[in-house]
Specification:
Elements (H helix, E strand, L loop, with lengths): L1 E5 L7 H8 L3 E4 L13 E5 L5 E5 L19 H12 L9 H15 L3 H16 L5 E3 L15 H10 L3 E5 L8 H6 L3 E7 L17 H7 L2 H11 E5 L2
Parallel strand pairs: 1-2, 1-6, 2-5, 6-7
Antiparallel strand pairs: 3-4, 7-8
Helix pairs in contact: 2-3, 3-4
């Protein structure tokens, strides 16, 4: 079983779904300290004039004093309206605007005030839309006996050991955090996903790389996105 473990992110970039597409089981890692101003409650879409623009979900308790799973949205309805407003300039330009608008609205409607649940609902909605298999579990709800203090690269190893995974896949950008020998010592093959750039037509706007999956979906069909994942994502061994 190849395991993927990542913090909950708000409609993350295409490479996040490349990880999901290349794993057998996906763990939303929400048991450590919350870090404000990260991808957990915000992402980027095209700006109506140039460059990119943040879409953000304001929190009622954004603080390093809470665990990720304790984060609460200040006003879910207001956040949903704000994000729809920041997507509205796509209305007459992006071919899949209405589909994406409904997907975002449905995600907020299903999530309540939990940031983790919002991010989970977003992952599930996108994977359903793209027809990407997703076997997802939320770490704080699994009853795992995890040590209180671990190095960043060791959380995944501990979870892999407890769940009996024989392979772990991480973004290649995080290579420096992991010791392949420690993973091999527990019978876990450490692997990394390299993600190339996917360029696509954004109509009247200049293309911006690395934006939220929302931007990708606004301009591309599910089949085009699945084809892109095949082209730009590559799993490589750690050693």
């Amino acid at each position: 079983m190849r395991l993927g473990i990542m913090q909950p992110y708000f409609f993350p970039y295409l490479g996040h779904f490349g990880l999901i597409a290349n794993t057998d089981r996906w763990i939303v890692f929400d048991v450590t300290q919350y870090t404000p101003r990260t991808w957990m409650n915000r992402n980027r879409v095209l700006h109506p004039t140039e460059g990119w623009n943040y879409v953000t979900v304001p929190l009622a308790n954004s603080s390093t004093q809470i665990r990720i799973h304790e984060a609460r949205i200040a006003d879910p309805r207001a956040a949903a309206r704000s994000i729809e407003g920041k997507l509205s300039h796509y209305r007459r330009k992006a071919p899949h605007y209405e589909t994406v608008r409904r997907l975002v609205a449905g995600t907020f409607a299903a999530a309540g005030d939990s940031l983790v649940e919002l991010d989970v609902q977003g992952l599930q909605a996108v994977c359903r839309y793209l027809d990407i298999p997703l076997r997802l579990e939320v770490c704080s709800r699994m009853g795992l006996a995890l040590p209180q203090h671990l190095e960043p690269g060791d959380w995944a190893l501990e979870i892999c050991t407890q769940l009996g995974a024989d392979a772990y896949l991480n973004p290649a950008s995080g290579r420096a955090l992991f010791d392949p020998q420690r993973y091999a010592g527990r019978g876990v093959a450490l692997q990394f996903l390299e993600v190339g750039e996917f360029r696509y037509d954004t109509g009247p706007y200049p293309f911006e790389p690395g934006l939220s999956i929302l931007d990708v979906m606004l301009w591309n069909s599910p089949q085009q996105i699945r084809d892109a994942l095949e082209l730009v994502c590559r799993c490589v061994p750690a050693l």
